[in-house]
Amino acid sequence: MIATSRLYWCLGGLAVWGLVAGILPAAFPLWVGACGVLLVAALADLLWLRRATPPTLEREVPDSLAVGVWTEVVLVLRSYERQTLDLELFDKPPSHCDLDGMPASLRLPGDKRARVRYALKANERGEHQFEPCDARIRGPLGLLFRQVEIGTFEDEQAQTFRVLPNFKAVSRYALMATADRVGELGIKKLRRRGSGMEFSHLRDYRQGDLSRQIDWKASARRSKLISREYEDERNQHIVFLLDCGRRMRARDEHDGGDKLAHFDHCLNASLLLSHVALKQGDSVALATFGGHELWVPRQKGPSGMNAILEQIYDLQTTTAPSDYSAAARRLAAVQRRRALVVVLTNLYDQDNAELLEAVSLLRQRHVVLVASLREAVTEQTLDEPIYHLDDALRVAAGHHYLSHRDKTHQELQGRGVMLLDVQPGELSVQLVNRYLAIKRAGML
């Protein structure tokens, strides 16, 4: 049992009354009587609480949540008491989750149901489980709480949920694409009717068509101008080479941003590009390095997204270094057909020689795009005011780091390596735009 604030106020009042009774003997009998009344009231609360039946709880939560996205959770409570229960609830999801709406207070009428809603945001992927919900039942006189755990299940799976990479961006893209509004997401479609690489069908000539699009034989047969319609080539291959090393554990939450690691941003971006590529008729495969050596074979068609999600949703970073050369050799051994290889990593200046060796190996057969994440904290350091020597040293170190990083990127680009250097929040859109540009240029 736990004392309520009301009981503490009563005890405080009796303590003051006791001091007065020590000075005025006439007040002593009244003080003793008040102590007795409070004792009886507390015992009444105690007996009622020991006899009260806690409510049952069912938790309504989706089987799969998207990392970093607020999701509504509903607690359904059922009382078996005739008397109204005053409750305070605190649900207990995994410690990495953020909560909005907890703790919650409610009055649960006798033999009735009530629903309590709150928002939950999971910040780590994988399989997770709720602990039983803590509930405090207030006595009828408001002097004592009884704390119990509710929401326990014999079947542990009833409290288990999965946290997947953020597939909300994929859903939003699909919705926007249906309404032909993907430009609102920052994605440039670069659509020029009839100017793709693969023949699609014949159609009537339209003003603005190029002369090379006109099919003269079909025009002669139909006695009117007929144009060939082309589309981007299909059945091409996209392979993600995903770094799971220690550098990908970095987060930018210090600047008020989200709590996602750079690795999670890479997973989210790879999912969005996978969705776009599969919709384009291309196939998608994925390999990891830096402590994990996972190979997700080529996926194609509508079921490909689910197959990729099942393989990578609980993938985590490691403390291992990133060996680009070994990763390139493993990928070259399993991916024989020409593909767009997208390397998702965080480049440092000391990676230059090793990455060049890896890219040189992959470029013998593939088109290679390196996407390197920029840490926001480094750039913010450059704008900090300088008051002391330590501030000056920190700003100088930031300039030194960025200059070496830029030099590395320039050398890679000078060797013909396609490079994206973006902050984590910009990666998804920039990656899709570059993929569409590569297809439009016929580089695959």
Automatic annotation (TrEMBL):
Residues 202-375 form the DUF58 domain. Keywords: Membrane, Transmembrane, Transmembrane helix. The keyword Transmembrane helix applies. InterPro entries: DUF58, vWFA_dom_sf. This is DUF58 domain-containing protein. The chain crosses the membrane at residues 7-24. PROSITE patterns: PROKAR_LIPOPROTEIN. The keyword tRNA-binding does not apply.
